[in-house]
Write a structure and sequence with these properties.
- The complex is a heterodimer of chains A (164) and B (240).
- Chain A is 74% helix and 0% strand.
- Chain A has seven helices and no strands.
- The longest helix of chain A is centred in the middle third of the chain and has 27 residues, at 52-78.
- The model of chain A is unreliable at 79-92 (pLDDT under 50).
- Chain B folds into two domains: 10-51, no CATH class; 62-237, no CATH class.
- Chain B has helices at 10-17, 26-31, 34-51, 62-81, 87-92, 99-118, 123-156, 161-181, 187-205, 213-237.
- Residues 76-96 and 120-126 of chain B have low confidence and may be disordered.
- Classes of the chains: A mainly alpha (164), B mainly alpha (240).
- At the A-B interface, helix 1, helix 2, helix 4, helix 5 and helix 7 of A face helix 1, helix 3 and helix 4 of B.
């Protein structure tokens, strides 16, 4: 399998996913890098039943959440309050001023969700995974998955209205 | 999720929005009810608002940057994971040919070449020339390793685990040389690296005992000759 081709094809989607899960550009890049290393090491475990994109998204999710846990664990000893998480835009043309504020508010609202809510909602709403795929990816039941997405949407709407 | 007379909750509307509701009649029910339609509209607007905030574009070169950062990591891992099977296979995995080393060498070569192109100090062309010579010498050694593998394939005609395992680091090294070589290598050499990449990919994926008949013919009649000719040429030109 041409690993380089896979890296070139899937890295952007993995970066989007990791950025939404971590809310932090540096952490997202670390998560993508680490996810590819893990994918390379466990390539023989990919049995071809799932789509490669789904498989590598699962690795990205787990890696991003691990990074977040480590960050939170470190912050517990360093500072009392969580950091401000909205990322700095990297490309002014692709991120015009009117949507920049909304993006920062959305990212801030995402970071206030639980890991499960944020992951399930991101995968469903932004990445277009089906509920069944998310259940498999997060190893949770159908009802729990739907409830997590619902709670996420409810909290996001509250947050965005409050921040508007 | 909804029974005939059950109250339709927000979670039902949300699943309808995502096309994930179990009740196929829910859409019609919502459409025929003003209060439900208003709730659905409000929900849809809230969710659609999120779409107006796309993430910043990481840039067109982002995937390539990821790959460049990965190469040293994957190279050492791949070399460590491959099981030695023969003398030439051991030679391929020697530290001299580790991908991390190749990557570092190529970075030096490219940077030096660019400095030579853009700066006017008298010493720069010499530096660029040295780096290029270094790259060509490493390419000659790469072709020498490839020749050993191709000779094995031409003689046996059957894939083995050793052939496949040895083709993998060669494939990765070949890609690096092709990327780094760019305009600095001749067209025939560039074409050879492209052709070798296709073959090495096939050998990397070959199953144990798989018949390599068509590949064997191609290697024997064309590729091996070109590898030998260009290696000889590089060796002569660079006084190896």
């Amino acid at each position: 399998m041409a690993f380089r081709t896979l890296v070139l094809d899937h890295s952007e989607a993995m970066h989007r996913l990791a950025l939404r899960l971590t809310g932090n550009e540096a952490a997202a890049q670390d998560a993508v890098q680490e996810a590819w290393i893990k994918a390379h090491r466990s390539m023989e475990k990919f049995d071809g039943r799932a789509r490669f994109g789904t498989w590598v998204h699962r690795i990205t999710v787990n890696t991003a959440l691990d990074l977040l846990r480590k960050q939170k664990s470190r912050q517990r000893f360093e500072v009392d309050e969580p950091p401000e998480l909205p990322p700095e835009p990297r490309n002014a043309e692709s991120c015009p001023a009117e949507s920049e504020d909304l993006l920062r508010r959305t990212m801030a609202a995402l970071q206030r969700l639980s890991d499960m809510e944020r992951t399930a909602f991101t995968l469903r709403h932004f990445e277009g995974h089906s509920i069944n795929e998310i259940c498999e990816l997060l190893e949770i039941g159908n009802s729990a998955c739907k409830q997590a997405i619902f709670r996420a949407v409810h909290k996001m709407r509250e947050q965005l209205e409050a921040l508007a | 999720m909804t029974k005939p007379d059950a109250k339709i909750e927000d979670i039902d509307l949300l699943m309808l929005y995502y096309g994930e509701h179990d009740d196929p009649t829910l859409g019609a029910k919502v459409a025929s009810d003003a209060e439900l339609s208003a709730r659905m509209e409000q929900l849809s607007q809230g969710l659609a608002q999120l779409e107006q905030a796309p993430l910043p574009d990481p840039g067109p070169n982002y995937p390539q940057q990821v790959w460049q950062r990965l190469v040293p990591e994957l190279g050492s891992g791949a070399a460590a994971a491959a099981a030695p099977a023969s003398r030439w296979h051991q030679l391929l995995l020697a530290p001299r040919f580790s991908l991390a080393g190749i990557a570092a060498l190529l970075v030096v070569a490219v940077v030096a070449f660019m400095m030579g192109q853009t700066m006017n100090r008298p010493s720069q062309p010499t530096l660029a020339l040295d780096a290029e010579t270094l790259l060509m010498r490493e390419l000659a050694l790469h072709l020498q390793q490839a020749e050993l593998l191709l000779t094995e394939v031409a003689n046996s005609g059957t894939a083995t685990t050793a052939v496949s395992a040895s083709a993998q680091p060669l494939l990765q090294a070949n890609r690096l040389y092709r990327m780094a070589g760019g305009a600095k290598v001749s067209q025939p050499l560039n074409q050879l690296l492209q052709d070798m990449e296709t073959l090495l990919l096939e050998l990397s994926n070959a199953q144990d005992t798989q018949d390599l008949g068509p590949v064997q013919d191609y290697v024997d009649s064309d590729l091996l000759f070109r590898v030998r000719a260009l290696r000889h040429s590089l060796t002569e030109e660079n006084r190896i």
